[in-house]
Amino acid sequence: MSTLPPGISAPASALLVRRSTGARQATLRESNLALVARIIQAHAVPPSRADVATAASMTRATVSRLVDELVAAGIVEEAARPAQPRRGRPATPLVPGSRLVALGLQVDVGFLAARVVNLRGEIVTEHVTPGDFVASDPAATLRRLGAVGTSLMSALPAGLRIIGAGLALPGIVSVEEGLLRRAPNLGWTDVRPARLLGERFLAGLPLTIGNEADLAAGTVAETAPGRPGPLTDFLYLSGGIGIGGAVVRAGRVAAGRHGWGGEIGHVCVDPAGPTCRCGSTGCLEQYAGRHALLAAAGLTDTTPSGQVRHHAAAGDPAALRAIATASGALAVALASVINVVDIPTVVLGGYLGQVLPWLRPDLEDQLRARVLSARWAPPRIVAADTGPAPGATGAAFVKLAAVINDPARWIELTGPTGHVG
């Protein structure tokens, strides 16, 4: 007795079985390619094919076929074999590719940045332009940034392929809509950067936008796209004129329901405090933002932030008082967050990391008094070691991670030889 569904003949059912089997095989290949790419990307010490096979629980032959595809597409490269005194052929180390790159861009109140990064997390080329972009015109500012990005791309060495561009922005960003809803310190509202950068700049290059603190935190969680850093759970603060923030759990930014979480700079530390550009009063950045710190130290807004550190090192009373004020405000805001989310490690970026030696003693003392769990898990404050404009690097990381997580799609785009079709 036939068990076929009504209306399906034997030849038709065989065709369905073949299609279903083919679909399953394609899906399995895609999953296996992604798994192998992620394993190679995550290893600080380059693994061999045998190492990958063990980690992936696959046969050596299967891994070799998958690695060959990844090598042809430029996602993975074979490094030089190490010298081996023993008999036998040494294994070939596998490393992330150096030819696939992404363009990371960042708009900050104090600078514009463009940076090209490869799959190894290496900066191929970059340009950072200082400036004052408070209340700037979005169109003019983004055109200027686009010109910098275009200049970098046009000067890239032959053989490099740009897979996309990412843009880091301060404020409330709707990633899926490609919309910057509000950046109080820039004075921007409802800005669509892709339109303002212009089709000539993008030239079909896919653009992703994101919050600068979230993207900068990603460069602490990962030392290269897909390669975990030493910290997996932490609060990140980006220290600029404004103070951005991000909560990172298990190496991933926990951005909240709408992706707008982490705005610690606008946590109120004193309801009777000064008015903030966001419209509220007594926000953290009014006490610990760069302009606030410079003013409290008796310095002008145009003074390099590093000068506060030099003044503090020289024992200047005004600088030390300014840092003490910032420390008190940070303690109030951070203790509130730590008590809520139970993440006692705090990473300070930007100028906050620069003045950490003078912030830390008082800040840690105050946090131990304010954080309920401090007796068992004392808060720890560390400086970010991410260099200037980490949001631009993080924006590039996001684009590159997409290749690692779905290498089959990139292979289809480039063809079997690794060249874009």
Question: Mind explaining what this structure looks like?
Answer:
The chain has 15 helices and 17 strands. It has about 425 residues and is an alpha/beta fold. The protein has 3 domains: about 15-70, Arc Repressor Mutant, subunit A, CATH 1.10.10; about 100-215 and about 390-405, ATPase, nucleotide binding domain (Nucleotidyltransferase, domain 5); about 230-385, ATPase, nucleotide binding domain (Nucleotidyltransferase, domain 5, 2-Layer Sandwich). Helix 1 (about 10-40) crosses helix 3 and helix 9 runs antiparallel to helix 11 (about 315-340). The strands form 5 sheets. Strands 5-4-3-6-10 form a 5-stranded mixed sheet, with helices on both faces. A 5-stranded mixed sheet has the order 15-14-13-16-17, with helices on both faces. It has helices at about 10-40, 50-55, 60-70, 140-155, 195, 200, 210-220, 285-290, 290-295, 305-315, 315-340, 350-355, 355-370, 390-405, 405-415; strands at about 75-80, 95, 100-105, 110-120, 125-130, 160-170, 170-175, 180-185, 190, 205-210, 220-225, 225-230, 235-240, 245-250, 250-255, 345-350, 380-385. Mean pLDDT is about 90; it is low at about 1-10 and about 415-420. A hairpin with a 4-residue loop joins strand 7 (about 170-175) and strand 8 (about 180-185).
Brief synopsis:
By secondary structure, the chain is of the alpha/beta class. The chain has helices at 10-42, 49-56, 60-72, 138-154, 193-197, 199-202, 212-221, 285-288, 290-296, 306-313, 317-341, 350-354, 356-370, 390-405, 407-414, and strands at 76-78, 94-96, 100-107, 111-118, 123-130, 161-169, 172-174, 179-183, 188-191, 207-211, 222-224, 227-228, 234-239, 243-249, 252-253, 345-348, 380-383. The chain is 42% helix and 20% strand.
